[in-house]
Amino acid sequence: xxxxxxxxxxxxxxxxxxxxxxxxxxxxxxxxxxxxxxxxxxxxxxxxxxxxxxxxxxxxxxxxxxxxxxxxxxxxxxxxxxxxxxxxxxxxxxxxxxxxxxxxxxxxxxxxxxxxxxxxxxxxxxxxxxxxxxxxxxxxxxxxxxxxxxxxxxxxxxxxxxxxxxxxxxxxxxxxxxxxxxxxxxxxxxxxxxxxxxxxxxxxxxxxxxxxxxxxxxxxxxxxxxxxxxxxxxxxxxxxxxxxxxxxxxxxxxxxxxxxxxxxxxxxxxxxxxxxxxxxxxxxxxxxxxxxxxxxxxxxxxxxxxxxxx
Length: 310
Fold this sequence. Notes:
The chain has helices at about 35-45, 50-55, 60-65, 110-115, 125-160, 165-195, 205-260, 260-270, 285-305, and strands at about 1-5, 10-15, 25-30, 65, 70-80, 85-95, 100-105. The protein is of the alpha+beta class.
């Protein structure tokens, strides 16, 4: 599928017939485009689109490529699926006044940008690319706020409600994974925008906007680092509290074992089968043995309490 944005029309135009090209195009958006659609765009706009392998390259040199009159950028956008975040590659080509984007999926940032184009004045593909990145940064901020709210909820569950179970530890690990995905995505944008500011092809009037975006990104990175540290603290606190609960159980069993050791010793002594054991002939031998066992247990318990071991 191909979407065009034309200055003449002033809005995004969805074209099902790829042979129809509106005038004054400044944005061509390819969404899960077919081979025929890609070939058509390449022939009309005299560009070479990225291959799937080039889009998925992870080397920094493949993320930003600048040639005479053209800029190629590969950057990841975050996709949310069932409380799971993942990075999906999107490519951008800025050729003259035209921006060409390639993507396989729908993204909220693109949908919001299409809406903004109705109210924001844009004059070329550079402006749309800047608007897309700015929208993406706002979405990152929303994601971080959402994760922060989840961290606060988990913190209350652990510290206030004292919920110590496997699910809680898994929730902390999931939140850590989300923060890692968001941080990787933000750092990548930081590198791309830094490279853009060194470019001779971007208009000078865009530099101030890019500097503000870098400042916003720096703030988001500080927030993600803070959240990751909070999660590490919660994880350590959770494991520490689990250890304390386990120690209480072990301590209880240890105390019970020690309390029953003296009675066991007395019972084992009088359970020996020797011929000459005077106590066996005592009329009150059996109740005396029970009293001795009970007394030894109570004495041990009193000693533990006095030492404040229990």
